[in-house]
Amino acid sequence: MLLKKEHQEFRERIRAFVEKVIAPGAAKIDVEQRFPTEYLKPMADEGLMGMVVPEEYGGSQVDTISYSIAVEELSRVCGSTGITIAAHNSLGCFPIYKFGTDEQRKKYLPRGTSGGELLAFGLTEPEAGSDAGATKTTAVKKDDHWLLNGTKCFITSASHAYASVNTARTSDAPGVHGISSFIMEKDWEGYEVGKKENKMGLRGSDTAFLHFTDVKVPLENQLGNEGEGFKQFMITLDGGRISIGAMALGLAQGAYECALKYAGATKGTNGKPVGTTQGIQFKLADMATEIEAARHLVYGASEMKDAGVKFSQQSAMAKLYASEVGHRACYEAIQILGEVGLLTGSHPAERMLRDVKLCEIGEGTSEVQRIVIAREVLKPYMAK
Amino acid sequence: MDFKLSEDDLMLQETAADLAAKRIKPNAEKWDEEGGLPQEMINELAELGYFGMLLPEEFGGLALTTVSYNCAMEELAKACAGLMVMLSVHNSLCCEVIYCFASDELKQKYLPDMAAGKIIGAYCLTEPNAGTDIAGIKTSAVKKADKYILNGTKTFVTNGGLASVFIVFAATRPEGGREGLSCFAVPKDTPGISVGAKEKKMGLKASDTREVSFTDVEVPADHMIGNEGDGFKTAVIILNNGRIGIAFQSIGIAQAALEEAISYSKERHQFGQPIANFQAIQFKLAQMATKIDAGRLLALRAASMKDAGENVAQESSMAKLFCAQISNYVVNEALQIHGGYGYMKEYPVERYFRDARACEIYEGTSEAQMMVISRQLLKD
Predict the structure, then answer these.
(1) pTM for this one?
(2) Digit-coded pLDDT (tens) for B161-175
(3) Which domain, by its residues, includes B95?
(4) B262 and B326: one domain?
């Protein structure tokens, strides 16, 4: 698709950085299941950690297409780094910037936006996944603080983030109205990080439980008003979904390029490159077409977000479609490579298939995206 | 038309299911993580006869029909696909190629020990530049007096590190294409054989996959399996067995994933009810089960035609193609039903997802199956 010159240049700059700093270790951090803390400072210096926050809070704010391009380019070589950056910006920084007071922004954002440290977001719980409104974590008000108790699961960057935004039930108000959110620091008493999850993919990203036992949270660390937690995270996830779409898009692109190289360079049964056979050509044609369509959806949702119009449906569509396209592209890339495609660390497609599967699950499964989309499209037609 | 399995089939299926539930499934996650099978498990399988399932009793085998054998193998694949493929390569490729094509002397020399699991076989066909293209095999076998001298490299050799005998396909006539290939039984202790490190793979990690290279390996001429130049024909006939086996492996993995998905969807509550109450989940389960049934029937048809002595080139390829595809569909949906938990190694669907991926690739990619099927369709 035709991009504005500024976006083309932005992509070139990020790609150069990614090829130099991120690409060389991508296979290794997956095999070693190691979180690469050494990437954080260079990524902060490149402006990748404050993309949704203005300069006054240490940010390097860019428009949402540029942000999507950055996540896409990171994921094109390393899904683990893609999700670390997507979660940090969209889920860590964004709610503090969007819903926080000036004091909260000043206190918590700069370390993350420019200091090379990470922020996390605690929404999912063992019993509250797709049904995020079913949160069991409680926050009880005591004189000058809140007392938080509960467990959050599958939290990206849980063990490295210096602070996290967490949802908790602050009243017995039925359903989603009793949920509020709080900024909490890792060093506080009772804030414990569980063991690192052993995941199928994204093994160079940090995923763990957070356990809160009588954690004292100062009143001023409540984010926004009481009872607004559910609304806040719905807004946060609308943006987050664009970034997961961008991540899936990048993984699709990486696997597609891996397949193209192989198809052009490897001889098949006819003594010519396998790319000369229609069986392979048609796969590549489908991959190229679907990736391009996914890119339009992701960038389109990004544009709507910046235009200030409601974009829940478009971000859900972008995430749903891009993650399924990403899955197919990685799957077919392995198919084109054949048996060598199954070896870990040999070609990136194998790692990327394991990585991209998360895009159909995290920040709302594909089923949840379909619920969101169906609700929006049916709304005007539904008999009361 | 009778869709019922025989008493024998059911008995074998039940015996294998029992072993799988008690000894295999509880350890499968560990073997996946560790990347191999413990010797004691191999010994146990050997004692129970799992290394001689297809061989006749005169060689110490169980003389199972293709249908019975595969009913048992599906159960093993359901518990641990990596363990199943170790047995599948040994039984349906290595034992069968010797039994069907080798001299009486070679049969006597190898089959009793193979049936007893004292000798495990590995099938060395694929090369770095000859995967789908079997005729492109570069490993050479040059005749010198009463020996052949083998040189070349084989990749993705299942059982590479466990095998005591390698079934090697090599070109006895260089540039001879398909007609220039021959097949040999090569004892592992022959000088000049070098077995590489265990490959790190996406799935089937309990199976042992390695590169095996041959440098001036002297093989007695009487270790040729079948006639000189018959290698391609031999490989293709034997691969029909393998394809039926992978079809059942695909079904085993899919069945395991379906069962996990059913039980998870009944236990997991969201929005105040089990997620099995939601139509989105119900329809997924319905599709999964329907596809598994269709695949199993295709695989059973190929197996029973083989038992009837019919040519199963097309049917085994169709079974393998379809079952491998639907297996990947099913494991994906099962993982999806598990949500975030499905992505974690604590839940077996994570392993099923990785294990199923190879089914569309090894023993002939889906594209290779489509080449076989379309060739049959178009030949007249």
Answers:
(1) 0.95
(2) 999 999 999 999 988
(3) 7-115
(4) yes
